[in-house]
Amino acid sequence: MVFLNPSRRNRSLVPRLLRALALAALLASCIGGAAADSPLQAPEQRVKAAFLFKFGSYVEWPAGTFATANSPLTIGVIDADELAGELTSIVAGRDVGGRPVVVRRLHEGDPVAGLNILFVGKASNGKLANLLAPVKGRATLSVTEADGALALGSTINFVVVDGKIRFDVALQPAAAANLRISSRLLAVARKVTGLQ
Fold this sequence. Notes:
It is a single chain. This protein is α/β, with parallel strands linked by helices. The chain has six helices and ten strands. It has helices at 6-31, 44-55, 81-91, 128-132, 171-176, 183-188; strands at 59-60, 73-78, 95-96, 99-106, 117-120, 141-144, 156-161, 164-170, 180-181, 191-193. It has an eight-stranded mixed sheet. The chain has a two-stranded antiparallel sheet with strand order 1-9. The longest helix has 26 residues, at 6-31.
């Protein structure tokens, strides 16, 4: 029978433990204090909600989008109740650029006026084009989680790659809406389309 040298085993565990702790810290910074459980076990919808909140810091809306200097940044969520709940927890007491953040749960046909970000959940895949149509050309960042969503007019689309939440960005809908997306956000996107 072969026994491992405990000191050798501990030395091989240390780098793995440090990597796990670094990953936990990264997820915790993205998710914030929204979860009581381990950030490594954060559900997909919580991670997407954290990204949605963070996206607001990396988009410049055109002049006149907000009525006053402290008008809220409003995020509408359609067909993603779990994500809306996570997002509501994440934004509580926080702001984006000095603006409070408001989450509105929407249903198909609800007005989209006043939204700065619209998230359409995967339950809406069959009607995605219809749900994105009202914000087309408006100063609203559209975010989705469906195959082919960028071709239908979405600006940011979540994808899962190797078990990790990533996102793709289409610059054409952003330009049509007069939204400027920070190069820092584009640098961490999995794919960016519409580059000149």
